[in-house]
Amino acid sequence: MSKIKMTTPLVEMDGDEMTRILWKWIKEILLEPYVELNTEYYDLGLEHREKTKDKVTFDSAEATKKYGVAVKCATITPNAARMPEYNLTEMWKSPNGTIRAILDGTVFRTPIIVKGIEPYIPTWTKPITIARHAYGDVYKNTELRVQKGSKAELVVTDKDGNETRELIHDFTNSDGIIQGLHNLDNSIAGFARACLNYGLDLKQDVWFATKDTISKKYDHRFKDIFQEIYDNEYKEKYEAAGIEYFYTLIDDAVARVIRSNGGYIWACKNYDGDVMSDMVSTAYGSLAMMTSVLVSPDGIYEYEAAHGTVQRHYYKYLKGEETSTNSVATIFAWSGALRKRGELDSTPELCEFADKLEKATIQTIEEGVMTGDLYMLSKLENKKKVDSKTFLEEINKRLEALVK
User: Fold this and answer.
1) Residues 6 or more apart from 73 whose CB is under 8 A from it?
2) How far is CA 387 from CA 32, 114, 189, in A?
3) Sequence-ordered list of residues with C-beta below 8 angstroms from that of 197, at least 6 positions apart, any chain
């Protein structure tokens, strides 16, 4: 068969360790035999980030803004232990954080559901998508230790030099700590629009939750911006689509989520989304079975795996030992990017290929062929654990049958 052609490039961001090896195999085994890949390649491996002093990360984000769709491999965010290992001159920041800031994106994470791997919460029969605001709050905070006898104040100086002060706490009797958080109306508005647009794309309800009864200005600002944008820009569209936007307190939302059947988008502030995405992924089975897409309010998409670089398996691979690494989330990053590229370019055959790639992947697992992590979770009777590359080859057998 002739290969599917891509009219517009998508941005390809390579990564680190075991996921970099899987990235290469996925392209060779599952993509290149069927698609004439048209990508603008950026190497976000830690060695190349060091070589370019992290310029490559910024370049890849700008390219994503240019072409509208990107697919990203998992990357290392270095800690102190990585400095000598990679001869780093600087502890480079998270590429994900840099890209999210440049794109002003919202991260949407959705579990991939397969037969034989049952959620720990039996009522969850449909996936729950976590939408995480990826700017501000504790991730861009300022913190100080405070000595006993000190007084801490919140001070804002306006453009004319006028000061507004609020007492945080008088540390008369004890040492303590303080933390300063901020967010931006523009970023919150972008978060709201990204979530509400995604709800229309998936034809799913959108839930949003904060603690506005306690945080009467900070969290309440999130609530107000979401409501204003929904009422002014989305209410009629949602009613026409038969879906709803729903606001509640974060503690009420947690209780409702546990009792629900799933099938909606749960929008969370940055910290809530960080925590709840891990809770939801674990409850559905595995972080390696989660799709992750960064969506900007301008309609720019960056697809990635929700997990890390699988360092332990990489060291085994370097020793020539067999690994059984789950590549599903990385496969779905590619399928998501190819589908979106096909939608934007009106290339239905590319969208159909993405659908078939996902179907073949799920079919492989449901027929009992899987990697070690899934083998431990699966309730299937006739199941077989295979190594990393064999798993991809097994998917390709089923993909070949689907594309004929």
Assistant:
1) 13, 14, 15, 16, 19, 20, 23, 44, 304, 305, 330
2) 21, 19, 45
3) 295, 297, 299
What pLDDT, on a 0 to 100 scale, did the predictor assign at position 285?
78
Per-residue confidence (pLDDT) for residue 361, from 0 to 100 = 98
User: Tokens at residue 271, please?
Assistant: 């910290």
Cα-Cα-Cα-Cα dihedral sign, residues 165, 170, 171, 177: negative
Dihedral of the alpha carbons of 78, 83, 86, 88, in degrees to the nearest 10:
100
CA distance 302 to 96: 10
- What's the rounded Cα separation, in Å, for the pair 186 and 90? 31
Q: What are phi and psi of 388, to 5 degrees?
A: -55, -50
- pLDDT digit string (tens) for 213-234? 999 999 999 999 999 999 999 9
CA atoms in the 13 A half-sphere facing the CB of 215: 17
* C-alpha–C-alpha distance, residues 119 and 7, integer Å: 40
Cα gap 296→102, rounded to integer Å? 10
- Give the mean pLDDT of 70-99: 92
Hey, which residues does 167 pair with through a beta bridge?
A: 153
Distance, in Å, from the CA atom of 254 to the CA atom of 276, rounded to the nearest integer, reads 9
Strand pairing category for 245-249 and 206-210: parallel
Strand pairing category for 150-157 and 163-171: antiparallel
pLDDT at 101: 82
Rg (CA), the chain: 23
